[in-house]
Automatic annotation (TrEMBL):
Species classification: Bacteria, Pseudomonadati, Pseudomonadota, Alphaproteobacteria, Hyphomonadales
Cross-referenced SUPFAM superfamilies: Thioredoxin-like (SSF52833)
Boundaries of every Thioredoxin domain copy: 48-193
Protein name: Putative thiol:disulfide interchange protein
Pfam families xrefs: Redoxin (PF08534)
Entry GO MF terms: oxidoreductase activity
Family annotation (Gene3D superfamilies): Glutaredoxin (3.40.30.10)
Length: 201
């Protein structure tokens, strides 16, 4: 009995230690397991609006054709709102181009939406290519067609929002990040693996 009592006390003490350590680290576990990826380059990932539907307002292709995000339904998309007059936007664009090259497929695509003025469209196309993002197709939402910006809840630039194949938001990141970092690639891979499992199931 003494040995069993000792083991019991040890287990109780162990549980108490784990509880205290866990409480000190920040309380109860995250309800969304993807929140574990909010570290390093992706420390600013925000899951507060996860589950919200993607906006339905159109953006415009380089030739002026209107397109809605519904065109990417069935694919995981990283929508990046950027502008040529925004230094952090230009700073992160090469990494978005690298992410598209590394992971672009029938299952995933980076969608960059310029918020430049209509008269600056050609320059924005030029800058997208100069910044190493020629694999990303060009889209624009000029000030007179800002509905998608407002509907997506974008408050500043750059803002990147990840939408799942179902058109629902997964997470967003306000500000620039290195989307070619190990943290970012790992995050995208985790999301694609989860989407593949859901599709198979």
């Amino acid at each position: 009995m003494t040995r069993l009592a000792f083991i019991g006390l040890f287990l109780v003490a162990l549980v108490a230690i784990v509880y205290v350590a866990f409480s000190a680290a920040g309380g109860k576990p995250a309800s969304n397991p993807l929140e574990a990826h909010a570290r390093g380059e992706l420390a600013k990932l925000n899951f507060a609006t996860a589950g919200d539907a993607e906006p339905t307002a159109p953006v415009f292709a380089a030739d002026g054709t209107p397109v809605t995000l519904d065109a990417w339904k069935g694919k995981t998309v990283l929508v990046n709102f950027w502008a040529t007059w925004c230094s952090p936007c230009e700073r992160e664009m090469p990494s978005l181009g690298a992410l598209q090259k590394a992971r672009g497929s029938d299952a995933f695509e980076v969608v960059a939406i310029s918020v430049d003025a209509s008269e600056d469209k050609d320059y924005a196309v030029q800058r997208l290519n100069e910044l190493g993002a020629s694999d990303i197709s060009f889209h624009i939402a000029p000030p007179e067609n800002y509905e998608i910006v407002y509907d997506a809840g974008v408050k500043g630039f750059p803002t990147s929002i990840l939408y799942g194949p179902d058109g629902k938001e997964i997470a967003r990141l306000e500000g620039d990040a290195d989307w070619a970092s190990l943290e970012a690639i790992g995050f995208i891979d985790a999301i694609l693996a989860k989407a593949a499992l859901a599709k198979a199931g």
